[in-house]
Amino acid sequence: MIASLLIAAGAPAVKVGQHAAAAPSMFGAVLALLAVLALIVGLGWLLKRMPGSGFRPAEGLRVVASLTVGAKERVVVVEVNGEQLLLGVTAGGIRTLHQLPEPLPAPAPARLPDFKHLPNFAQLLQQRLRKEP
Predict the structure, then answer these.
(1) 15-46 pLDDT, tens per residue?
(2) Which residues contact 98 (CB under 8 A, 6 or more apart)?
(3) CA distances (Å), 55 to each of 45, 51, 52, 119, in order?
(4) pLDDT at residue 2 above 60?
(5) Which of 18, 22, 35, 113 has the greatest number of beta carbons closer than 10 A?
């Protein structure tokens, strides 16, 4: 009813959506994405340099070896200022199991396998298929 009164009074017609915001352009979307990525990288950089952030390894402390013995239980060898301790780690806490008199031997460096001297897969498969259990 009000619309018909305005039309009758000679009021100019108002375009629908005239005051609505325009759809963002592709440039604006890419710019917003880059701003969010820069914010994430900047916050990560800042957290890394804050004291007590937990991202930096503690000096004089390192995990030498670790072995899982249960769902939430582990046995860990930790080196603290040149001294190695055997620790039991559970969901309920951490206990010192043993103080090692001499350090564990260093593990052998990981090597890539020699692909030239691998056995022939076809021959191995034929041998396995011929064998009767």
Answers:
(1) 776 676 666 688 888 999 999 999 999 999 88
(2) 85, 86
(3) 11, 10, 8, 44
(4) no
(5) 35
* pTM given for the model: 0.44
Cα dihedral: 61, 62, 65, 70 (round 10)? 70
Distance of CA 42 to the CA centre of its chain: 17
Kindly give, in sequence order, each residue whose CB lies less than 8 Å from that of residue 94, ignoring residues fewer than 6 positions away.
87, 88
- pLDDT (tens digit, 9 = 90+) per residue, 69-128? 999 999 999 998 888 999 999 999 999 999 988 888 877 787 877 777 777 888 888 888
For residues 48, 49, 50, 51, the Cα torsion angle rounded to the nearest 10 degrees is: 100
Q: Do residues 82 and 62 lie in contact, with contact meaning Cβ atoms separated by under 8 Å?
A: no
Phi-psi region of 89 (alpha: psi -120 to 50; beta: other; left: phi over 0): beta
